[in-house]
DNA sequence: TGCATTTGACCCTT
DNA sequence: AAGGGTCAAATGCA
């Protein structure tokens, strides 16, 4: 056998991460339960956390779990890359490595195996500093797509990027696709202080899709996995409350015009489904039941479903990743 | 003056 | 070949 890359340590790492994910999901479920109780009995619950705090906890748990999943998948991709490179002792050519050296301009550096996930949000804000490096008009799309890289690309070598585009179906919303995970300091989890202080921004985004394996940007309709996503302001620190619109100086005046008057909305939580369920079309009954629930029941269901999935189907084992075509 | 954004060119992927 | 992603010079702003 060729698999000599310390399988035992890999298993223990995966198991550890699995436990971390479970822990986060359970925490989130507990917070959602408390939230439900709080909303059913708004009086006489002195001493318990506020709705906002509980909701923030729920969102934080989702975000933490997603973050752990990301890092696990990244580890796996890196591991597989190592395995692939070991065939004859020489590294596998990196995309673009042996291609034109002509100045390097426009060189396509996008990582094919980079983790991607998309959120729909009212704001572009998150807890990272981004720098815009491009904007393109996209075919059949009314709105241009903006390209951002992590501000710490050069000082810390962080390779995270994101693409922001106004949602075609709902111009009040922004579709943000994150590609790659931050390796710089100052992750959202590292600075929780903003969570309690800003109660509207995190309310306004939720995860549309999460992709372990390739960098395809999912369609808006593909709500296979949905959950709230934490967003914290830091991106363009401005004092003006309209900074989201005015201070970004996007060249297309239509891009942000509708965002000036956006109303915070209560996120609709969609069922959490793992990718393995994508082809399952027998969800009609479950979906009907689900759609009749309150948002808070849905939230709880999400955590329960996520917990079950992680407990039974998703152990970060080899087989899960072997199903994916990795280069 | 230094940093961020804009924008057209270049190059990669499909 | 078309569309999309990235680069870097030009430009704007504090």
Automatic annotation (TrEMBL):
* Region described as Disordered: spans on this chain: 84-108
Q: PROSITE patterns given for it?
A: WRKY
Signal peptide annotation: none
- Protein location: Nucleus
Per UniProt, the keywords (alphabetical) are: DNA-binding, Nucleus, Transcription, Transcription regulation
* Residues annotated as domain WRKY: 125-187
Q: What is its main location?
A: nucleus
Residues annotated as transmembrane: none
- Gene Ontology molecular function terms on file: DNA-binding transcription factor activity; sequence-specific DNA binding
PANTHER family hit by this protein: WRKY TRANSCRIPTION FACTOR 21-RELATED (PTHR31282)
Annotated protein name in UniProt: Putative WRKY transcription factor 70 isoform C
